[in-house]
Protein: Polyamine aminopropyltransferase
Amino acid sequence: MLEPNAWFTEIHSRDGSAFSLRVRAKLHEERTPYQTIAIYDTTDFGRLMVIDGCTMVSDRENFIYHEMMAHPALFTHAEPRRVAIIGGGDCGTLREVLKHPGVAEAVQIDIDERVTRLAERYFPDLTTANEDSRAQLLFDDGIAWVRAAPPGELDLIIVDSTDPVGPAEGLFSAAFYADCWRALGPGGLLVQQSESPLYHQRLLEEMRKAMQGAGFLDVKSLFFPQPIYPSGWWSAMLACKDGPIDGFREETIGARPFSTRYYNAEIHRAAFAIPEFLRRR
Ligand code: SAM
Structure:
C-alpha cells in the first residue's frame, strides 16, 4: 500500500508539463527484456498500466483510444477480412477489431508477451476476445513479422505501439512502411497511432512523408481526446495503399451489431477535421 494521497506522475520535460493520477497501490512491477511494466490501482481511473514511465491504459478511458484505433479504419475499408495488429499487447484494440463479424482473422504481434499476460490478469475486460477462434496472438518483433509477411494478403494493419523509442522506434520508419505497403492487398489500409498533434507535430509530418514515400497513395490524420497521454489530445494516421480515402461505410455504422462507447458516424467525420495550425502549407 502506498501512502495516502500518493500520485503517479508522468513528466513530459520537453514540453514542460506533467500528468498525474492519484494511486492507492502499486500492484505489480517487472523488468522484461524489452521494457519495465508497472500496474497501479488508482482512486478514480481504475487500474493503470505504465510502460517505461509512460501511461498506456487505464480502465476509465481506454475505450476512446481502442475504438479509434479500430473502427475508423474498419469502416473505411470496403470489406476488411484479414487484420494484423502490431503491438497492442493489452488486447483492447484486438477486442474492438473482433467486434466486426466480417473480420475472418486478426493476428496480434506484440514483442513482449508479459504485456498480454499482465493485461489478462489486471485488465480482464480488455482481453475478452483473446479466446475468439479468429484471434491469433504472436509474441515477436512486429517489424520482422511484417517484413516476412506474404505480399498482398492483409486488408488492414493497425500499429498500436509504444512511443517511437526502444523496440518501437523501427515501427515509425520508411522501411517498415514499405513492408506494410507490400503486405497489404488492393484497397489495403494502414493505421498507426501518431502521438500528440500539439507536442509531436514534427513526428506527424515525418510519418506522413515516410508513408507517402513508401508508396501509400493517400494519408490522412484523425484526432481524438486521450485524457492520460501527453497534452490530453492524440492522433492516428490512416494511409491507403492504392486509392483515395474519401468516404466510409456510414450506413453500416448505424446497423452495427455491437456497441461502442465513443465511436459513431458523427465522431468518424469529426475526427478527420484538420485544425488550422496543422494544415499543410
Ligand atoms: N496505447 C498505447 C500508447 O499509445 O501508448 C500503446 C499500448 S500497447 C501496450 C504498446 C505495445 O507495443 C507494447 O505492448 C509493446 O510491447 C509493443 N511494441 C513495442 N515495440 C514493438 C515491436 N517492435 N513489435 C511489436 N510490438 C512492439
Q: What stands out?
A: The chain has two domains: 6-57, 62-279. The pocket of S-adenosylmethionine is lined by residues 34, 56, 65, 86-90, 109-112, 115, 141-143, 160-162, 167-168, 171, 193 (CB under 6 Å). The longest strand covers residues 17-31. The first helix runs from residue 62 to 76.
